[in-house]
Amino acid sequence: MPSQRTAQLSDIPLQNLYSLLEPITIPASSPRAKFSNWGQTYYCTPLAIFEPENEFQCQLILELARREGRRVRPVGVGHSPSDLACTKEFMLQTRKLNRMLEVNAEKRYVVVQGGVTLQDLHAELAKYNLAMINVGSISEQSLAGVVTTATHGSGIEYGVMSTHVLALTLLLADGSRVTCSRNERSDLFIASICGLGCTGLIMNIQLAVEPAFLLKEVQDSLPFEEVMQRLDEFVYSSEHVRFWWFPTADSVRMSFCDRSQEPRNPAGSWWWHTLLGYHLVQLLLFIGRYILGLNTWIANFACWLVSGRTVGVDDSHVIFNVDCRYPQHTTEWAVPYHNARSCLRELKAWLAQEQQDPHGLRPHFPVEIRFSAPDDIWLSPSYGQKTCWIGIVQYKPYGFNVPYRKLFSGYEKIVARHQGRPHWAKAHELTPEILSKTYPRFDDFVRVINTVDPRGMFRNEYIQRHIFGRPVDTRFYKSRKE
Ligand SMILES: Cc1cc2nc3c(=O)[nH]c(=O)nc-3n(C[C@H](O)[C@H](O)[C@H](O)COP(=O)(O)OP(=O)(O)OC[C@H]3O[C@@H](n4cnc5c(N)ncnc54)[C@H](O)[C@@H]3O)c2cc1C
Q1: Is residue 153 within 8 Å of 320, Cβ to Cβ?
Q2: Is the pLDDT assigned to residue 3 strictly greater than 80?
């Protein structure tokens, strides 16, 4: 039975609906009427992009979509390195849905609108002497984007960031507004905290936080094989451990972070972060597009730039975040922690073989290695297992393209052999047949979305392809040049 609100909405004449939506519609003539993801690797021109500022406007958008039989894709800041956020129908931009709604410092939670970026959330939380429990490499993303893709930081005792969500308020495809948590509509909740935007529009998120803290980070480098032999010792030695591996230099840069009472003492390197680190490396990478062998030298040079032991103490999010640099192709898979060593060694052997071949691959750097605790979220790549995340990257210097497909396909074959699961925000080729074997609760996820959204209003091409097995080309939203 429709709620009072939806009954009122359905009474609005179509022309009035258009007029109400006009002020929040990005004009077709605006450059913002076209969407590309941050990595500049996927592009789309939606039929309309709406930028609502409140829940009522979101209701209006869903009402129009229902009447016109359109699909709706919520989007945060478009940082997903795949076509996950792309659509040719209605795009609902959540940037302006970014308000803090409740702070409970005593019970250590906040309620915030889903469109808030993590960096704005850090600033808001700091006012109450609070902080997020764990954060990934960047804080540009929207909180809802982070939650729906099971974005992770690092720490073998820390789950993906969705594990910190206590409750959600959603607008469903039928226009109803529901709250869900582990105690209330728990199936919808578990499906939505890694829901890829297809269970409904996340309006509000109740998020567990902790008192603001400083992190002390110690960084040092060791040869690859020594790190592999002492992997358990290193991974369990600090709260948040992550590695950046430079295969051609046979070196792993290790970062160990722990909550600290020591005074703030930032440890940035000017050479790395500005002149040399950023601009020179970008220029060299650009030249490396033409002289492939140069990429090995650049990787070794970048490795040298960050060598040596460093110690720094700073606000948690400052230490958690790193400089991800230039637009890029990137992929990342989660392998069970017990397979991490064998997987990384196989990757090493393969990359060494390529290096020996004069026409072999000369990849960019580094390989990023992180860890997370098991969880019970149906589509989380950490579902039921301690996880080692392994990510690779091919930068696009000055936005110019570089070869990446052969590298990514070789990498994917290896991580898949080690029971890897792809990061949902990153491009992959897995079909529902494979995914349902990889995720024991995959069918439950499909059941929930079929129940709350039988017509598929929230399903874009990515969802059609990977969840429902429709033959939508993975290159549907690629530019022709790539
Ligand atoms: C430089 C860089 C660094 C990164 N670092 C990490 C990292 O350290 N760890 C990691 O795990 N990932 C990382 N990622 C991936 C990133 O965290 C995810 O892609 C995240 O989803 C991006 O958030 P967004 O706001 O850009 O979401 P978008 O890309 O805009 O959208 C992602 C998904 O969220 C859905 N969505 C967005 N808002 C809503 C809403 N309100 N309701 C329902 N669904 C919604 C969209 O429909 C889509 O399915 C990184 C990506 C980049 C480019």
Answers
A1: yes
A2: no
Helix ranges (H only) for 252-385 are 270-273, 281-288, 294-305, 316-320, 340-356
Return the residue matching tokens 């728990």.
186
pLDDT of amino acid 95: 97
Nearest CA to ligand 1 atom 40: 202
**What does the DSSP 8-state code read for residue 27?**
P
Cβ–Cβ under 8 Å, residues 239 and 153: no
Ligand 1 pocket: which of 86, 113, 149, 460 to mutate (most atoms <8 Å of CB)?
Answer: 149
To test the pocket of ligand 1, the residue of 151, 165, 421 to mutate (highest count of ligand atoms within 8 Å of its CB) is 151
Average confidence (pLDDT) over 386-415: 96
CB proximity list for 276: less than 8 A, separation 6 or greater: 305
Kind and range of the H or E run holding 253: strand 251-260
| Confidence (pLDDT) at 382 | 98
When pLDDT is cut at 50, 70 and 90, the band that residue 268 belongs to is low
- The proportion of the chain whose per-residue pLDDT surpasses 70, expressed as a percent, equals 96
Q: Which fold has domain 100-211?
A: 3.30.465
What's the topology of domain 214-422? Vanillyl-alcohol Oxidase; Chain A, domain 3 (3.40.462)
Q: Residues with beta carbon inside 6 Å of ligand 1?
A: 38-39, 73-81, 84-85, 94, 114, 136-138, 141-142, 144-146, 148-149, 151-152, 196-197, 201-202, 324, 423, 425
Cα 456 to ligand 1 centre (Å): 21
Domain assignments of the chain as residue spans, ordered by start: 100-211, 214-422
Q: Compute the chain's Rg from CA coordinates.
A: 22
Instruction: Specify the pTM.
Output: 0.96
Percent of residues, the chain, with pLDDT higher than 90? 90
For the chain, the average pLDDT equals 95
The minimum-distance atom of ligand 1 relative to the CA of 149 is: 21
- Mean pLDDT value of segment 448-455: 98
Q: Tokens for 30, please give them.
A: 């605006």
Q: Is residue 243 over pLDDT 60?
A: yes
